[in-house]
Design goal:
- Two copies of one chain form a homodimer.
- By secondary structure, chain A is of the alpha/beta class.
- In chain A, strands 6, 7, 8, 9, 10, 11, 12, 13, 14, 15 and 16 form an eleven-stranded mixed sheet that branches. Chain A has a five-stranded parallel sheet with strand order 2-1-3-4-5, with helices on both faces.
- The interface between A and B is large, with 52 and 53 residues.
């Protein structure tokens, strides 16, 4: 039976989960996959983590060089996260002829061109299913199932922390700050939640997924990004009344006019399958020119679900002799011939603090109509609130710039209404 | 650039869709996948189908031998359906050294052991993503993503025709016969709908999916099967009231007590992600010991979605040098050491035609309780209907045989209630 040695770099949540899965399933993999997968080495500064997992002291490496020169190690699993030292370690492993499995979205998003070059040069495998959406099999679906399609669009709830926060805000009516604190207490949000709540994490993943979907490099810098920190419980409740659920949506589209990639809070119509993806569940909704709509749903994070994706890659790597690489020109920057659309098409939810006088709706909609924006839904409250009444509109499809101009004009014009919030809408 | 020749056997809905996708995307695949995929030959008795697709007359083969001996053909796509002549043709192609891509669930379910043996012997690829759930990437997810998991269970809505019928019955309150006729008119159901409505199609797919999930052969004969022809609009409406949607569910479970595989109408709790899979959409909900819950959702049938799965396999086959085979002992019959559970655990919806007298609920529940069945939900109508009133119960988890015994006892005992329908329930 073929023996395959694995080294794990980093024994945090995902590294620990990966070790546990490999350890507990070793006999199962021998029986089913005819391969003996053995963790030969780990690299972890906090030695106690390794010992707590029952890893023998002689398997704890002191540095990456030790792992690279260990002939028993065939596959290096990088689950450290962040750019450095992960990048240096991964390149060292590839250059030492080891295949690499990584869950590192920031690293893969920013440096896939360098990593892939090193992998090709050394004839090694480079696997990153776990970098996007944890246990949900989206990378391989794009590579090996949907690759006959021109992918027209993808929409994803691809960050568990923000989906947990928005679900709780929606269910309980609590404020962002309250729910964030609770999420931190429960371990669903980190002490410094910026990467999640400001949409960086989702944008890294969207950069990777859209590069693969559209077969051209979509650098992180091209992803429009807005987080959820300004979302008010009020907007979520009005959205519900209008038939929408609020999600931090990652959207990629490819059409004749170009490519658009954006991460922002979005009202999703309740009848859309993405609207019922709640709590820390994630999902990616892909539309291809042949397959039509496909949705892949599951746990986007967590020790075992992400470990499942890593171990899937390890077994794939251990049982295949040749490796394919991405089907896009993997460069640092975008291909100059690709046009990026920033004035994108969308429907919009706009909440105004309006004067409590007759005729305000008419004034507001007259400005909107001047900018070619037509109104689909309205809520006009009659109760006073700080001298102003809430007026909520949902528009038909229009363009980003039209909305910006209309909002500026309404805010500037005479004070009959001030724009309190603008949220994009997907039907 | 590598050139890969394809032959398509059968130009029905799926064959035609496959041809169109390959034809329209030829330049795209050259650019993206660096491979020139050309349809070199087709086998189709109705020549006019080929001509209507714009296929040159000299590419229409007269018989399978011509395709097998054509050195330009590398991959044979079998989309004829049914066992013969598909089986003879596929074996001939494999024995001639051609790789095979098939969408044929009945063939693969019943003869995968023979086909795989021939593929291995001849070092050919054998791909069958399109055999299960059309464009939904479930086969590859089981093979290359979730293969590190012990799969605990899978539940699927894997037949589009029945899901279309049940969705329409649920929305409009029409009877099975009315909706079937409409579905036949619209092309959602065949003139002879038996394979779909009696659950054969779903059972073939469940046999394939559960064999792969549980890494042991699950023959078709082991799949318990009940169709939807006896479903009444009445039951669907009572189910709705109780918070359930009716689906033809394919269920596979693997536990210490054994394997259970079954296809039958099932009430699914509305909060479950499968409950909102409507119309001709399909979904498979897989639970693994590491990944937790994953759901794959999309079009389970249709020319282009199924064509997408076939073309995905063609491109995979064309761009890989080595092929892996199933990770289960692919035999004709079940491994004698595997225990199949038939007295399975479930909750049950039971509708009675009950006497319109006080004390009937007490009599019914007393018999149930004698068989260790406890009641979770009750609807007791007060209006008369043919001298009897409907009494509807949903039980807590119990066992199949307990319910059978209780039903027999109630039907036999004195006539205070007759069982009108029994439907299993998933929460």
């Amino acid at each position: 039976m073929k023996k395959v040695g694995v080294a794990i770099l980093g024994l945090g949540v995902v590294g620990g989960g990966t070790y546990k899965i490999l350890d507990e399933h070793r006999e199962f993999y021998k029986k089913i996959h005819n391969v003996d997968i053995v963790v030969e080495s780990v690299l972890e500064l906090r030695k106690e983590r390794a010992l707590a997992l029952g890893i023998a002291e002689n398997k704890i490496a002191s540095n990456i060089a030790e792992i690279c020169s260990n002939p028993e190690v065939d596959i290096v699993v990088e689950v450290i996260g962040g750019v450095e030292p992960a990048k240096t370690f991964v390149l060292a492993a590839l250059n030492a002829g080891k295949s690499v499995v990584t869950s590192n979205k920031e690293l893969f998003c920013k440096y896939s061109h360098e990593l892939e070059k090193a992998a090709k040069k050394n004839n090694c495998g480079l696997f990153y299913e776990a970098s996007c959406v944890g246990g949900v099999p989206v990378i391989r679906a794009l590579l090996d199932n949907l690759q006959g399609n021109k992918i027209l669009s993808m929409m994803g709830i691809i960050n568990g922390t923000t989906n947990y926060i928005l679900t709780k805000m929606s269910n309980g009516g609590a404020s962002y700050d309250e729910v964030l604190k609770e999420a931190q207490k429960l371990g669903y949000a980190e002490a410094n939640p910026t990467a999640d709540v400001e949409g960086f994490d989702a944008a890294y993943k969207l950069s990777i997924l859209s590069s693969m979907s559209f077969h051209t490099k979509i650098p992180f810098s091209k992803v429009y990004r807005e987080g959820i920190t300004d979302i008010s419980a009020e907007d979520i409740q009005y959205g519900k009344q209008l038939g929408y659920a609020l999600k931090l949506l990652a959207i990629g589209k490819n059409s004749d006019s170009g490519i658009e990639v954006r991460v922002h809070p979005t009202f999703v119509k309740l009848s859309h399958p993405l609207a019922s993806v709640n709590d820390s569940y994630n999902a990616v909704y892909v539309t291809g020119d042949s397959v039509e709509d496909v949705m892949l749903y599951g746990r986007g994070a967590g020790a075992l679900p992400t470990g499942s994706a890593i171990v899937g890659d390890i077994i794939y790597c251990a049982t295949h002799n040749n490796f394919n690489y991405s089907t896009f020109k993997n460069t640092e920057n975008a291909d100059p011939s690709v046009k990026f659309v920033t004035n994108f098409e969308s429907a919009y939810y706009i909440r105004f603090d309006a004067q409590d006088k007759a005729g305000v709706l008419s004034k507001v909609s007259s400005v909107l109509s001047k900018h070619d924006i037509s109104v689909a839904q309205v809520i006009q409250e009659d109760g006073k609130k700080n001298g102003a009444v809430p007026l909520i509109l949902v528009t038909h499809l229009t363009r980003e710039n039209n909305v910006k101009k209309a909002v500026d004009e309404i805010n500037a014009n005479g004070g009959f209404a001030k724009v309190a919030s603008v949220i994009r809408v997907v039907s």
